[in-house]
Amino acid sequence: MELGVCTGPPSAERAARLASAGCEYYEPSVAGAVMVAGRDAFTAGIGEWSRGALAPRAANVLLPGDLAVVGEERDGERLAGYLAEAFRRAHELGLERVVFGSGTARNVPEGFDRDEARRQFADALRLAAADAKDAVESAGGGGEMLVCLEHLRRAETNLVNSLAEAGELAEEIGVASLVLVVDGYHLEEESEDPAVVRRFAPLVRHVHVCGSGRVPPRPQDGERLRALFGELAAIGYEGRCSIECQWTDIDEEAPAALAVVRAAAEATGLA
Asked: Which tens digits make up the pLDDT trace of 114-140?
């Protein structure tokens, strides 16, 4: 299992420090990094995304908060244009996993029909999955890019809060380019048993972890990480695992955090 960190494009110095600490890739935000610059500026700066041995292989936060995918304010035309461009850029960067969390964008407005909201969200997922597939095929078909539906705690959204709900929705949609990310933080916050990963084993293709309270993983988080990793080992998981947390000083905190996660992975046979 490869280990990475969620962060913006690092400087050459930071990339070297992260790589020396055992970081194998990084995971930037689509809305907060990949889609910030205009198309011409993005294309001109494509070479700045990979630094030495460190390159982006996944991305999180697909949508900005003001791009609603459910409710009366949903702008289908804007959503379609954004997703097409986002996945075109993602493929150019060599991203293989794009996490569809975006809690604010998918929050169901008060009074809006929840069944309709779920249908709208499913439509957005189908569109994203189709755009991911099209981006790969239009570039000649090389590589793989999957949309990873993320279960989010109720403090962040009111739609799809458990891995079980996410898995059921992905199975219902039933397209090959839509899979799941297992997020240890949201499992903990929603008191969901990590054993749920076994129910959706074929769909589990990415993992997020952090310490309790969304801090960098600490030694006291080892037991919880081992519980999750044990379930992943049981399904033969061989994907990536990103530390998604609130860094205070990533240069100082990342080496210890990576060591904690790697120790848990080694203890359960994932490393």
From this structure: 999 999 999 999 999 999 999 999 988
Dihedrals φ, ψ of 204, to 5°?
A: -75, 110
Each residue's pLDDT tens digit, 1-12: 999 999 999 999
Would strands 240-243 and 204-209 be described as parallel, antiparallel, or unpaired? parallel
Rounded distance between C-alpha atoms, residue 101 and residue 108, angstroms:
14
Residue-wise pLDDT tens digits, 148-204:
999 999 999 999 999 999 999 999 999 999 999 999 999 999 999 999 999 999 999
Tell me the CATH number at 112.
3.20.20.150
**How far is residue 92's CA from residue 86's CA, in Å, rounded to a whole number?**
10
Q: Which domain holds residue 237?
A: 2-267
> For residues 138 and 133, what is the distance between their CA atoms, to the nearest angstrom?
9
Domain count, the chain: 1
pLDDT in tens, 216-244: 999 999 999 999 999 999 999 999 999 99
Residue where the block lists tokens 């936060």 = 61
Rounded Cα distance, 75 and 17, in Å = 42
Task: Output Rg (C-alpha) for the chain, integer angstroms.
Answer: 18
How far apart, in whole angstroms, are the C-alpha atoms of residue 81 and residue 241?
A: 30
- Helix, coil or strand: residue 263: helix
Helix or strand run (H / E) with residue 40: helix 39-44
